[in-house]
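Model it.
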Amino acid sequence: MADVRSRFRGVAYLTLSVTLLLSSIAFGAEVDSVLQAGADKTRAAQQSQQKIDRLADDTYDIFQDFQVVNKQIEGLRVYNAQLTKQIENQQQSMREIEDSIENATVIERQITPLSIKMLDALEQYIRLDLPFQRDIRLENVARVRANLDATRFSSAEKFRQVLELYDIEAEYGGTIDQYSGLLPINAQERQVTFLRVGRIALLYQTTDQMETGVWNPHAKEWQVLPSGEYRSAVSKAVRIAKKQAAIDILNLPVFAPEAAQ
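Modeled.
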């Protein structure tokens, strides 16, 4: 009976040992499974974090690119706005140029007739003016008149030449000048020195200073002055015109202007 009990306890101990062993094995397997699951989760978390980091880097790069592109777009907007204004200004300038071309065409058609009228008036004025260097002045008018028919000159250049003659004639009124020339005296050509004082007096004096005369604008002829009355004054005026003497007050004969009709 004792042997039976002893065997039963042995079987019970063995059964308990097997149960404990199986429980230990099962617990160990469960722990390993839990650890493996934790390791898998850790790896998954690491992979997810790496993906997040990559996404964050990519997002940051994309954001930086977006900011750069946005600045470029803003710069292009400003540049386009400036170009738009420039184009508008150029279009306005083109319209003004077109208008100027049309006006220039009309003006160019009027320049030649105006130039001819101005030359005619200037030539008539020279013939009525004091006869100083008349031939040279009329030759200048004839030269410019011939240039009006020349094709090598533009209309603007032709008109400029006409205005230049007017400027030259205008300067005569405020200057004093002397020049040499021949003058018929007593049916004989004599070498004289002409003296022009603006447009108020034109005189002459022979080289020996023995005769002095003045142009009479009313009689349209030369008039001999009394001997010795203006000889010194005219001689001094000639030296002033030659810049050989200082400017001084001169006693010269001046005819009163004709009354307007």
